[in-house]
């Protein structure tokens, strides 16, 4: 062995096992690749992840998403069958009696505010959109009770437009994965968008939500059972 080869042999930097670039977590040049790998692994774990709100079409999804504020999707699904049977379209919803809406929505809490939102949504869709749910964020957020998160749910799941929905699970996992340090949902959305290609946005968020419910919980996350712990998750703040 030549002296040059001996120096290479003795130099830890020449050993691939000691090369920081071989560790995906220590390679600052490929955060997008690691974020894609996370989504690929979650797609394997949760192949059926999707919108948990039971709906048929954009109108029902819009209404159900507005109702999901401050409650669970599962609870929303218990009241929407009666709601949509009685008020199947924007015209029927706009003509509803507030007290009847409040009675249906009472199990969700905040029924007075939510009934007001639904009445306003029905009227807004009739007055500005001929009873059709718009497929633009700008128009959706003009409707009562509709913010960016709700608009993104509708755009991504009803219209097939790439959209990132930042709920409590998505925000928490994005921070633990080191994708963002922000707590503001819009900043979190932008940080995720900088890492994921658009085709991952909608379903990728569903997968993050599933993982947040199953393992990466707010308290006592089950890192020992998590497939991401083996090289993909730095466990920031855990």
Write a brief caption for the model.
With 238 residues, this protein is mostly helical. The chain has twelve helices and no strands. It has helices at 3-10, 31-45, 58-67, 73-86, 90-94, 98-105, 111-129, 137-140, 148-158, 168-176, 185-195, 201-214.
Structure description:
- The chain is mostly helical.
- The protein folds into 2 domains: 29-50 and 163-229, Endonuclease Iii, domain 2; 58-158, Hypothetical protein, domain 2 (Endonuclease III, domain 1, Orthogonal Bundle).
- It is 54% helix and 0% strand.
- It is built from 12 helices and no strands.
- It has helices at residues 3-10, 31-45, 58-67, 73-86, 90-94, 98-105, 111-129, 137-140, 148-158, 168-176, 185-195, 201-214.
- It is elongated and about 55 Å long.
- The protein starts with a helix and ends in a 24-residue tail after the last helix.
- Mean pLDDT is 91; it is low at 1-26.
């Amino acid at each position: 062995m030549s002296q040059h080869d001996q120096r290479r042999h003795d130099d830890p930097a020449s050993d691939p096992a000691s090369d920081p670039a071989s560790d995906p977590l220590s390679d600052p040049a490929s955060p997008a690749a690691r974020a894609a790998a996370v989504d690929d692994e979650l797609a394997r774990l949760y192949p059926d992840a999707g919108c948990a709100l039971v709906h048929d079409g954009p109108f029902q999804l819009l209404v159900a998403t507005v109702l999901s504020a401050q409650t669970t999707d599962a609870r929303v699904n218990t009241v929407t069958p009666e709601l949509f049977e009685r008020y199947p379209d924007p015209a029927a919803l706009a003509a509803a009696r507030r007290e009847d809406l409040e009675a249906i929505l009472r199990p969700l809490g905040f029924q007075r505010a939510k009934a007001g939102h639904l009445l306003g949504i029905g009227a807004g869709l009739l007055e500005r959109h001929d009873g059709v749910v718009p497929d633009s964020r700008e128009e959706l957020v003009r409707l009562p009770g509709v913010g960016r998160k709700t608009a993104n749910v509708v755009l991504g799941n009803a219209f097939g437009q790439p959209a990132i929905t930042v709920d409590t699970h998505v925000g928490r996992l994005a921070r633990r994965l080191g994708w963002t340090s922000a707590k503001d949902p819009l900043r979190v959305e932008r940080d995720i968008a900088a890492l994921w290609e658009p085709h991952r946005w909608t379903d990728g968020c569903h997968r993050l939500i599933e993982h947040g419910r199953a393992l990466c919980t707010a308290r006592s996350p089950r890192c020992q059972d998590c497939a991401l712990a083996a090289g993909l998750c730095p466990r920031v703040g855990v």
